[in-house]
Amino acid sequence: MELWFTENHAPGARFSIKVEKQVYSQKSEYQQIDIFDSKEFGRFMTLDGYMMLTQRDEFIYHEMITHTAMAVNPKIQKVLVIGGGDGGAVRELTKYQSIQTIHLVEIDEMVIEASKKYMPFTSDKLNDPRVLIMICDGLRYVRSCKEAYDLIIVDSTDPFGPGEGLFTKEFYGNCEDILSPEGILINQHESPFYGEDALAMQRAHKRIYETFPISKCYQAHIPTYPSGHWLFGFASKKYDPINDFKEEEWTKFGLETKYYNRELHKGAFCLPNYVKELLNEVE
Ligand code: SAM
């Protein structure tokens, strides 16, 4: 018998991966967590039936959610990651010796435990001495936070269930408050392609645009996310992602990346006309 994982990407479109075996399945207080093995995409994790990451293409998402900001402000030292319990964003951040502190605020301890046990390819740097893991709701954390961060990465699930609060105006306002004057906010910004995703993307963009003086979007091609066309948000009080791009300084870090590079940094901010229109509608 063949076993397939299938996710509805739109009312009339589905995406499937042939499963070799299921390696983990538990319901936490917040969500259903599943981990599968497949030939095509390697090991992959889903939450409530939605794809979070696959071994084959996670590098695209995790490189794009981290290095873009680091290349605009290579002096970033203190980072807050909200969500991201799989550890992929943390893994990329630990490549920078210059980063001193990484606070990971994840609501679901079971995601971290399952990732540590079954997905060492993303989680193997969660034990780095610079990483402090806090198990709590990111919305509540930023509400009462007294720290100042140079970079906040919102590596959340979609805007429903536990992730809903991480797409609100209150959340973005609190992030702005705890960012240093040179700080940058990066968020996973949903997809512009299918109707419901595009609406969620527009709602998030409107709120970030109203909160930060500089708010841009950039894109990446992620085969296992709905439509494969994914956006990230770049918001800052000071830095423009292109005019302030420190490509020479970033190159001096000497990092090996599989997706991100200097040309791609500039190209990623060049958006298709239909995406520009969606963004313009809410600006
Ligand atoms: N790359 C992924 C994607 O968009 O498909 C995101 C991956 S990461 C696993 C998302 C994490 O955000 C999950 O582990 C989830 O538990 C966490 N999360 C959701 N809502 C949260 C909240 N309010 N505060 C902190 N973490 C949250």
What does this structure look like?
The structure is a single chain. It is built from eleven helices and 13 strands. It is 31% helix and 32% strand. α6 packs across α7 (169-178), α7 (169-178) packs across α8 and α8 (195-211) packs across α11 (273-282). The strands form three sheets. It has a seven-stranded mixed sheet with strand order 9-8-7-10-11-13-12, with helices on both faces. The chain is of the alpha/beta class and 283 residues long. The chain binds S-adenosylmethionine.
Please describe the topology of this protein:
Blueprint (H helix, E strand, L loop, with lengths): L2 E8 L2 E7 L1 E7 L4 E7 L3 E6 L2 E5 L3 H7 L2 H4 L7 E6 L4 H6 L7 E6 L2 H10 L1 H4 L7 E5 L2 H7 L4 E7 L13 H10 E10 L6 H17 L2 E8 L7 E8 L10 H6 L9 H7 L4 H10 L1
Parallel strand pairs: 7-8, 7-10, 8-9, 10-11
Antiparallel strand pairs: 1-2, 3-4, 4-5, 5-6, 11-13, 12-13
Bound molecules: S-adenosylmethionine.
